[in-house]
Amino acid sequence: MDSVLTYAVALSSVTIPFIILLLDPLRGIPGPLLARWTSLWMVYHSRKGDMHLVMIALHEKYGSIVRTGPNEVSISDPLAVKTIYGAGSKFRKSEWYSVWQGHRKFDLFAERDETVHRAQRRLVSNVYSMDTLKRFEPWVDKAIKNLLAKLSTLGTTSVDMGRWAQLFAFDVIGEVTFSKPFGFVDAGKDDGSFNQIDIALKSAAWIGQVPWLFWAHDRVSPLIGNWLGVGARHGSLRALAASETASRKSRGSDHRDMLEMLMDVHRQKPADMNENAVLSMATSNIFAGSDTTGISIAALLYFLCKHPRCKDTLMAEINGAIGEGAPEGVVPLSAALQLKYLQACIYEALRCHPAVGMSLPRVVPQGGLEFHGRFLPASTIVGTNPWVIHRDRNIFGHDAETFRPERWLDQDRSQMDRFFFAFGAGSRTCIGRNLSWIEISKLVPTLLLRFEIGLVDPESTPEEDCWWFVKQHGILIKLKSRS
Ligand code: HEM
Ligand SMILES: *[C@@H]1O[C@H](CO)[C@@H](O)[C@H](O)[C@H]1NC(C)=O
């Protein structure tokens, strides 16, 4: 049904009078012809799912500033990351995010008022801190053991690693949020939630480019019903979080899980954080914490298989440090964080394949933005794309196209750290960064100690599509038990 609406957009947005072009403040900025006239260009590629690659190609062709819409530009110069997203910047999130938020009052990811966001983030940031998360380590261990036991039963056949990684990440979210895994790894499948997330992502990616259409739909939806998939984030996924919350409350738990910590905030500050806000955070754990982590684990395993030399170096490091020490156990976080080559591999996988593949759009504040001799007036939408930033040769080296973990070890890495953009930047940096890092750091070496891994088809490259997240399809891996 989304496509009917696309035609409505097509009809209504190509009629820009010529006179406006002459007054157009962005007219000197190069880019695809269609994009200067209409948001349709952005809508088209957001729907098609190739934005991460298209933006790399466009910046190669047109240079560091590219016009992607009548009122939107993309910048490839990493310095712009500091200007746009840096601490204290006045660039607020664009209306693209409004379609995620809808009418909800508490939405950390989508909130566009920085003052409101700052207060909300302060309420919950402690729940996501490394110190808090370290206490959850036994539950992550439990989920890892469960996954490995399950994988053992699958034998040496071909295993869709992207899918298993997401099933695993979902179970971890259940463990740390509600003291209960969703049971997806045991079942070997999800409960339909993955599809709901995909539908919401695919829908929001494009309708966020024409937010007025979303809000028009919102106004008439009491009459015509819901025609947009983005509703799933507020609908079935929130319903899932609500039922898990309810059953967690009646069941009780001896763990102090995230839900309990969030409820404590609610009890202490009921006016700032009501029960809807607690539910909103639980929902966002489910929505933001599974795909992203699954994608990142799959990317790392894929790159290791594609680069056997790196896999061997990593194996040597793991064997040297952990050795036979943990055949039944799980690699402890404290040890994993000390494995320098492993950590370099994680950085490199997230550099080569950051989970988010679209520009993180922001609004130029009062006073405008002067960049590379161009002037962008206030209210222009501007952003940088992690896939573009991570391929900058000045920062990451002349071989930025290649997976080479050593770059994080053998050169001064301070610039690379500064412009590592997989988790965004500034006040809106990913709040779940440490949780995903714990999962990846522990699961990957534990898995490698247990199994010899390789691609079923070593020549293959997985298909991927970009609907906000760049998700791979069919990373088929064969596992051979080492024992
Ligand atoms: C490797 C895994 C992950 C990646 C690559 C990732 C990436 C990102 C990025 C790029 C942003 C910034 C978006 C923007 O500026 O528009 C973000 C924000 C966010 N992420 Fe993650 N994420 C990951 C895991 C997680 C997990 C595990 C959770 C929750 C349990 C989570 C929850 C959030 C939330 C709530 C925000 C909004 C933060 C705010 O605006 O204050 N993410 N993430
Ligand atoms: C934990 O998160 C903080 C803040 O985002 C970050 O600076 C730090 O590097 C993270 N630690 C690990 C081990 O990823």
From TrEMBL:
Q: Does the keyword Membrane apply?
A: yes
Q: Which InterPro entries match?
A: Cyt_P450, Cyt_P450_CS, Cyt_P450_E_grp-I, Cyt_P450_sf, Cytochrome_P450_monoxygenase
Question: Per its UniProt record, what Gene3D superfamilies does this chain match?
Answer: Cytochrome P450 (1.10.630.10)
Q: What are the required cofactors?
A: heme
What Pfam families does the record tag this protein with? Answer: p450
UniProt keywords (A-Z) are: Heme, Iron, Membrane, Metal-binding, Monooxygenase, Oxidoreductase, Transmembrane, Transmembrane helix
Q: Cite the GO molecular-function annotations of the record.
A: heme binding; iron ion binding; monooxygenase activity; oxidoreductase activity, acting on paired donors, with incorporation or reduction of molecular oxygen
Residues folding into a coiled coil are none
Q: Does the keyword Transmembrane helix apply?
A: yes
Membrane-spanning residues: 6-26
List residues binding heme.
C430
Q: What family does this belong to?
A: Belongs to the cytochrome P450 family.
Mind telling me what this protein is named? Cytochrome P450
At the highest ranks, the source species' classification is: Eukaryota, Fungi, Dikarya, Ascomycota, Pezizomycotina
